[in-house]
Write a structure and sequence with these properties.
The complex is a heterodimer of chains A (about 325) and B (about 290). Chain A is mainly α and about 325 residues long. Chain A is built from twelve helices and no strands. In chain A, helix 5 packs across helix 8 and helix 11 runs antiparallel to helix 12. Chain B is mainly α and about 290 residues long. In chain B, helix 6 packs antiparallel against helix 8 and helix 8 packs antiparallel against helix 10. Classes of the chains: A mainly alpha (about 325), B mainly alpha (about 290). At the A-B interface, helix 1, helix 6, helix 7, helix 8 and helix 9 of A face helix 5, helix 8, helix 9 and helix 10 of B.
């Protein structure tokens, strides 16, 4: 197990290098010159010589790869440059907005689990009955609505008409996190519910279920103690796969509900072409995503002792 | 609930299959109708979608304007039709692009193998390792928005999935004897690929593409909603909703009309996709 963890952590290094390299390269590709941008923002007209001097100061006259490694070195020190717009340092700004997004993400995932696991199991157990069809139709509808439409509908009915929740999130509280997280949870549950149902159905068709029945084990016991436990890994894997779309989804939902997280920060940065901020967003989101995947892979062993991890002897 | 009920008899399967065929025909007709509406949107519009009439601005739905009017007094129903045209045609071209490119890359990689195969597959690994929509947002931002660029951004992140499927299908086909026979019969590589490999691996790719149309349409509309897709003078369902956002409280139809249009389009394509999958892979249909 220890060996495997070390191996996986080592594998992380090239992936992180690729992520940082791509984030850096994208910024270059944008054709945006930090010096030019800064001068434009201040509205000053300066001569080529002054610009060249400023470029030399920032190391922009050096070869691409040298610039990359300098940038990477600064990155390790927590220096990601300054925003073109606000002039503030990118990294502290980004970190200060991260907790709000993490809160939103965690609440959405919890809501998704609470909604989709019981419904998915119920649909599988009641396969091809009315309950099953009803749950599947709901999931189908949820799957066919873009999250911004769901967000606006929820906002219209619950915030504007019924006034149960605030229209925009002015502060971080249970009431204000409800609508944004529910929006994300609806889209995720709709997809996820189907997968839970399929996983449980697969497991239910296995011989041991009939065996348990023949031995007189109550169905509920088989379901909760054996079937669900066996499905856990599949269910977890599918959940992590959906985190990718969740991270993207937060950008839209945050900007609709004005939730003050990194998603909104990114959308604002995109609208104002604030490249250092966009770069930070893309890079950190990719890193978070990769780490989440790693943690899931590692947790398989804990959840299902039957799984042998690479490098271990059976 | 009993376990025995779940074991399907041959008889049941037969009934199911006929059922699937009917469903397939119905949804194909629906999708075709939708496509026709999209193509002939301009001809179907009751009003000029760009004609402004400030005296008629923000009227609720009525007999004359079934979906109401927007802030500039433009007929929402006509705008939704034109927006639907933009969304549907852009999405379909996106799906066609990624299917063709992904399949070509995957089949060639699988067939020839070698260094290019490794390099391209590593690239697709990287693409798949990124959270898709975040990456698309960044690319669209770099390309400065616009409908074409949004399509391009989504294409960049979506082709690897198809390449993967096509490659694994090709690898499976390559080792089957009839390919060796075809080669012995004097076919060159291109003939083998086009005549034998492609037809045999197109099924799963087609299913993936059909199921992707709905998702892609929503993602494209999402990018437009954030201002990274179609720009305002062009009517597109996503940016129409974005434009009406501030009017949600008092004039909800400005938002709800395009929203329902997206919903209907996605429902039709998802139903069609599910049915195509059931039809091509009957084993799956019980789930």
């Amino acid at each position: 197990m220890k060996k495997y963890v070390v191996k996986r952590l080592l594998q992380l290094i090239p992936i992180l290098l690729v992520i940082t390299f791509l984030s850096f390269g994208m910024m270059r590709l944008a054709g945006s010159d930090a010096v030019m941008q800064k001068m434009e923002n201040t509205g000053m007209v300066v001569s080529e010589e002054v610009m060249d001097k400023a470029r030399a100061e920032l190391g922009l006259d050096k070869p691409f790869l040298t610039q990359y490694f300098v940038w990477l070195g600064n990155l390790l020190k927590g220096d990601m440059g300054t925003s073109y717009i606000s002039g503030k340092e990118v990294f502290p700004t980004f970190i200060s907005k991260l907790p709000a997004t993490l809160l939103l993400t965690v609440v959405s995932i919890l809501l998704t689990i609470i909604i989709s696991v019981p419904l998915g199991v119920l649909a599988a157990v009641k396969q091809n009955r009315f309950t099953d069809y009803l749950i599947r139709v709901c999931s189908f509808i949820g799957n066919s609505m873009p999250n911004f439409f769901v967000a606006l509908l929820l906002m219209y009915f619950f915030a504007i008409r019924m006034k149960v929740f605030p229209v925009i999130a002015t502060e971080v509280s249970i009431k204000s996190v409800a609508l944004p997280s529910f929006t994300l949870a609806i889209a995720m549950s709709a997809k996820y519910l189907r997968q839970v149902r399929a996983a449980v159905l697969d497991e239910l068709s296995k011989d041991y279920v009939i065996g348990a029945k023949a031995r007189g084990v109550r169905f509920s016991v088989t379901l909760w103690k054996s079937v669900l436990r066996a499905c856990l890994v599949t269910i977890l894997t599918l959940l992590t796969l959906s985190i990718g779309s969740l991270l993207g989804g937060t950008a839209i939902v945050e900007s609709i509900f004005l939730w003050d997280g990194v998603g909104k920060l990114a959308v604002d940065a995109i609208n104002m072409r604030d490249y250092p901020m966009i770069q930070a967003y893309v890079m950190w989101m990719a890193i978070i995503y990769v780490c989440v995947n790693l943690i899931t892979d590692l947790s398989y062993r804990v959840l299902d002792p039957r799984i042998r991890l690479g490098g271990e002897k059976a | 609930m009993s376990v025995e009920n779940r074991v399907p008899s041959v008889r049941k399967q037969k009934i199911k299959k006929n059922h699937t065929k009917t469903r397939l025909i119905i949804f194909l007709i629906l999708a075709l109708a939708l496509l026709l509406v999209a193509i002939f949107a301009q001809q179907l519009c009751p009003y000029d979608p760009n004609a402004q009439d400030t005296a008629m601005s923000l009227r609720p739905p009525s007999a004359a304007h079934p979906a109401g009017t927007d802030r500039f007094g433009r007929d929402m129903f006509s705008r939704i039709l034109v927006g639907l045209q933009t969304s549907v045609l852009a999405t379909l071209s996106l799906v066609v692009i990624i299917t063709v490119i992904g399949t070509a890359v995957g089949v060639l990689c699988g067939y020839y193998g070698g260094i290019w195969d490794s390099v391209i597959m590593r690239i697709s690994d990287v693409c798949l390792a990124f959270p898709g929509l975040v990456f698309a947002l960044a690319i669209a931002a770099l390309l400065n928005g616009g409908l074409h660029n949004a399509v391009l951004a989504l294409a960049v992140i979506s082709w690897p999935k198809y390449a993967r499927i096509a490659r694994s299908q090709t690898l499976a086909q390559k080792s089957v004897n009839y390919i060796a026979a075809a080669k012995l019969a004097g076919n060159n590589s291109i003939q083998v690929i086009v005549k034998h490999i492609l037809p045999n691996c197109i099924g799963p790719i087609l299913v993936t593409a059909m199921l992707d149309i709905g998702t892609m349409l929503m993602e494209l509309a999402g990018l437009s909603f954030l201002g990274l897709g179609a720009q305002p003078p062009v009517a597109e369902l996503g940016n129409m909703m974005s434009g009406g956002r501030s009017m949600l409280q008092t004039y909800p139809w400005v938002i709800i009309g395009p929203g329902i249009a997206i919903f209907i389009i996605v429902v039709i394509f998802n139903l069609l996709g599910d049915t195509v999958r059931d039809y091509l892979d009957p084993r799956n249909s019980r789930k």
